[in-house]
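Pipeline run #58 for the internal structure catalog. This entry was flagged by the ingest filter as a single-chain record with no existing model, so it goes straight to prediction. Upstream metadata was stripped on purpose; only the residue string is passed forward. Reviewer on rotation: M.T. Logging verbosity set to normal.
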Amino acid sequence: MNMRLNQLNAVVLSLSFAHSEVAGKMMTATSAVITPQQLNAMNPKEIKKLPNGVPMILHQTWKDRDVLPKHQPYMDSWDRCLPEGWLHVLWTDADAEEFVTQRAPHWFIPTYELYMHPIQRVDVFRYVLLLVWGGVYADLDNECLTPPRLPDMKTCQVYLAETCCGIHNDEQNDRYNNAVQFWSSLRGGRERGLVPPGVQNSLMASRPGHAFWMWMLGLAVEQGPRGQWIQRYFQAIHSTVGVDLLTVANYQYTVAANDGNTVCLLPKDEWHGNKAISESQDYAVEKFVVHHGTHVWDSKMRTTFSIVTGVVQLVVILALLYGVYYMWKRRNPTSRFPRLS
């Protein structure tokens, strides 16, 4: 049963290399940039597909049409990179909300409506998008260096990018390891050699309708928002919709499903990190995508959390002071605070 692990480890990308710094050598735009409304009006049968059924659509998301200046070159790189026939779609938060409410499984909508943070809704939108339309999803801080060719298209129908721990902190690494260790002890996965590494959701690809995404949404419901709004607000994003949950879903599906190993990895040494050449092995590996890891949502979340935490702490302190005053007043109903001389 080691075939699955061996297959995952053996997945490689056949690439030619062209670094974006040599802009003059890159091709002119070949993909067609369209709006979500234009895509939704198309007949899926008319969209070109790769041999394994992955539609030739690149999906990206941002809160509105005004992409940050630091992201614009990365976004434009895909239009130069992708061969002719590809479609390039930028989804806004409003587009995503409308799409999920109209196209997601009906049993998922109540969970979606309970999410407190915009990034939670954006994360699950990616999964619904790949379930319904399929294609390739890439965060805006992913820069395309050379036309990517997905590996093993005779077998693989879903691709998840392997986590590159170098861009994450120790706390995140621990969560990845704990998630995999926990699920590897179930259903004999460890004995069967089915302990895939952590995956993340900044670069994914899929044919439409693959069962993995239904599995992922089901797990999102199972691990979804709980309690009152303040509890939901402080729930960990990574474990409710993000990379930790995707890691667990990948492991669960790998162990439980019998679909011919159609969920495969994009190896970190061949796409991830902030260098065009991987130096993690004895030989140089040319990458087709560089993930610049701008973490815009994370910095905003940290600022928001700091403000909310400060407000909560202030409220708690005021409540404690009032409690002390209330108890003192009950014991000394006729007393007043002494005046300062």
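catalog note: The chain has a mean pLDDT of 74.
catalog note: The CA atoms of residues 170 and 176 lie 10 Å apart.
status: ready for reviewer M.T.
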